[in-house]
């Protein structure tokens, strides 16, 4: 359940149009490729004037301002409407309900027309996956109008607070829905053949991916494959079976990567998960290189000297293994802290908390 109120103002020398839009409910189903959203909205339009009557309402207000208020009915087919459209809708609106009402104030201010627009549909969203699987995604609805920016400009209503009902989120098993919303304004001519500029208001909520599945089914398995390379060093340095074991582990990691890739989004850039798996393959290649080098040195130097080189190289690989996981983990923790929308004060303790949260809690 997500509530957002925004405002649209049209200002000329004698009239002011206010559009209050309520982002009423969110019931999101993020599909495999993370591109479609199923959401329910509520939009409110309010029109008012500083003069005797607003142009769209003049036909009903000029009849008899002292008449009974119930007699005043707004006819959208005969009067001015904002002609709102949704830019990033996928297909057509599944459910829609539109209501017009006239709001009267107790003072001398003119009446206001309120449009209540409720609709449910699928919406398209391009997600950025560089931080996958610790990514935070924006779920956006783009509202525009067929009228030019000279007639109507959509802005956010700062007088109403926004809220999110996380209990109505359908994908709670895979995503965490943040309890806040944001909006920003834009302009476009892309949707129209002519060069007329049209106002756009983008309304966003955010979700964070739960990484538990990827930690236990991918990262942990790759970590075990890397760790098993150190078990091969129990084999004598001059024995070729050590190299065979590491090559087998390398091929196992490659096969595992190809199988896992089938269930992940197809993108042209590397994600954090891709970087970790590639780093694991590079580390396995380094181990295989070390095995081959030690086997070659065994033909040149005495076995006692080769064992010294072997111990030093194993220690170096162990340091690389440990440092990589520490540095990579801290880097991800910093990244998560930067994109974290809760804006908590950063401390070293807070960084460790975020690290534990994303690596163990989910």
From TrEMBL:
GO cellular component terms, semicolon-separated: membrane
Membrane topology: Multi-pass membrane protein
Gene3D superfamilies linked to this entry: Neurotransmitter-gated ion-channel ligand-binding domain, Neurotransmitter-gated ion-channel transmembrane domain
GO molecular function: extracellular ligand-gated monoatomic ion channel activity; transmembrane signaling receptor activity
Keywords of the record: Receptor
Domain Neurotransmitter-gated ion-channel transmembrane: 224-286
InterPro entries from the UniProt entry: Neur_chan_lig-bd_sf, Neur_channel, Neuro-gated_channel_TM_sf, Neuro_actylchol_rec, Neurotrans-gated_channel_TM
Domain of life: Eukaryota
Pfam families: Neur_chan_memb
Keyword Plastid: no
Main subcellular localisation: membrane
Subcellular localization: Membrane
Protein name: Gamma-aminobutyric acid receptor subunit gamma-2
Species whose genome carries this gene: Magallana gigas (Pacific oyster)
Organism classification: Eukaryota, Metazoa, Spiralia, Lophotrochozoa, Mollusca
């Amino acid at each position: 359940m997500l509530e957002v109120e925004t405002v649209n103002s049209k200002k000329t020398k004698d009239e002011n149009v206010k559009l209050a839009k309520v982002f009423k409910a969110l019931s999101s189903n993020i599909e495999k490729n993370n591109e479609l959203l199923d959401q329910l909205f509520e939009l409110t339009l309010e029109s008012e004037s500083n003069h005797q009557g607003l142009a769209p309402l003049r036909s009903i207000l000029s009849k008899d301002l002292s008449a009974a208020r119930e007699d005043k009915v707004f006819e959208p087919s005969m009067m001015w409407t904002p002609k709102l459209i949704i830019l990033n809708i996928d297909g057509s609106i599944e459910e829609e309900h539109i209501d017009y009402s006239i709001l009267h104030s107790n003072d001398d201010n003119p009446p206001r027309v309120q449009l209540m627009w409720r609709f449910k549909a699928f919406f398209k969203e391009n997600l950025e996956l560089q931080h996958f699987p610790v990514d935070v995604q924006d779920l956006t609805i783009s509202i525009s109008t067929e009228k030019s920016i000279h007639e109507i400009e959509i802005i956010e209503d700062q007088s109403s607070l926004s809220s999110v009902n996380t209990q109505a989120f359908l994908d709670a098993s895979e995503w965490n829905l943040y309890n806040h919303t944001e909006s920003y304004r834009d302009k476009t001519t892309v949707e129209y053949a002519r060069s007329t500029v049209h106002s756009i208001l983008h309304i966003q909520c955010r979700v964070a991916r739960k990484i538990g599945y990827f930690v236990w089914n991918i990262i942990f398995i790759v970590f075990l494959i890397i760790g098993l390379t150190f078990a091969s060093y129990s084999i004598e340095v001059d024995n070729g079976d050590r190299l065979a074991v590491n090559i087998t582990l390398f091929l196992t990691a490659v096969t595992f990567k190809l199988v896992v890739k089938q269930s992940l989004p197809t993108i042209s850039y590397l994600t954090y998960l891709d970087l970790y798996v590639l780093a694991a393959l590079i580390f396995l290649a380094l181990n295989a290189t070390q095995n081959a080098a030690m086997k070659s040195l065994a033909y040149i130097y005495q076995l006692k000297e080769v064992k010294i080189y072997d111990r030093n190289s194993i220690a170096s690989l162990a340091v690389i293994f440990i440092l990589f996981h520490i540095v990579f983990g801290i880097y991800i923790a910093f990244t998560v802290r930067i994109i974290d929308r809760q804006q908590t004060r950063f401390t070293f303790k807070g960084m460790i908390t975020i690290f534990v949260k994303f690596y163990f809690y989910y």
